[in-house]
Amino acid sequence: MRNLVFHDTNLEVPKMWIMKRALPVVPALAVLALLNPPAAAADETPPSPEAAPAASVEVDPECEPSDMPLEGRASPYDSASVSVGDAVLKICYGRPSARGRTMIGGEHVPFGQLWRTGANEPTTLHVTAPVSLGGIHLDPGSYAVYTIPGDEDWEIFVSRSTDHWGLQIDEDVRDQEVGSVTVPRERPDEHVETFTISFTPPTAQGTEVIMEWEDFRVRLPVEVHGG
């Protein structure tokens, strides 16, 4: 039988003797290991659901102008947006100015005729949650908004067609209408030189879309149904 040599002590101890001495100890060590398992390293511990909540994603619809350069436009391309709860509403539109002319009710925006509600590209409303716009139900998506202005009220239309240009509101655009609503004309306190669309401060339920130009103002209530 080979002997196990401990060189640091220069003692020669028979291997069989060591095994006989160690065997009674092994079961005890196994029991202790079961009762006191080694702790896992901190970086190996899987995070609990509470420790790793899902990250929230902010949704900000983008305005998509046409191929017409934005620089040098007589009617700048602009937007207005508002968040109601988890929902986002954003309007993208061209902003013409009066420049001493009579626009609404004049030759440029006659009463009783369809108007693109702005300049150049169609005025587009993006919504990220179901909403009611003046009583018109809209699912999440993008919509063109055009109008028939009048001296006492405006008729406002919403269409799924957002690819047409300007006043090219043909039968295909009309066939994609989601709905329309008539709202009364109001008068702003002062002359509004440049066509402006804005939102009122949101409440828990919704907001209002405000359209103003010259001495005309109309508003559309918006109710958000989910986010």
Explain the overall architecture:
The chain has 227 residues and is mainly beta. The chain is 11% helix and 37% strand. The protein is built from three helices and 13 strands. It has helices at residues 15-22, 25-35, 171-175, and strands at residues 3-6, 11-14, 77-84, 87-94, 124-127, 131-133, 136-138, 141-148, 153-159, 177-184, 192-199, 206-214, 216-224. A six-stranded antiparallel sheet has the order 3-4-5-8-9-10. The protein has a five-stranded antiparallel sheet with strand order 7-6-13-12-11, with no helix packed on it. The longest helix has 11 residues, at 25-35. The N and C termini lie far apart (81 Å).
Could you write a compact summary of the structure shown?
This protein has 227 residues and is mainly beta. It is built from 3 helices and 13 strands, in the order E-E-H-H-E-E-E-E-E-E-E-H-E-E-E-E. It has a 6-stranded antiparallel beta sheet. A 5-stranded antiparallel beta sheet has the order 7-6-13-12-11, with no helix packed on it.
Outline the fold blueprint.
Elements lengths: L2 E4 L4 E4 H8 L2 H11 L41 E8 L2 E8 L29 E4 L3 E3 L2 E3 L2 E8 L4 E7 L11 H5 L1 E8 L7 E8 L6 E9 L1 E9 L3
Antiparallel strand pairs: 1-2, 3-4, 4-5, 5-8, 6-7, 6-13, 8-9, 9-10, 11-12, 12-13
Query: How large is the radius of gyration?
Result: 36 Å
| Helix segment tally | 3
> From N to C, what is the helix and strand string?
EEHHEEEEEEEHEEEE
Beta-strand content: 35-45%
User: Widest sheet: strand order?
Assistant: 3-4-5-8-9-10
Largest sheet: 6 strands, antiparallel
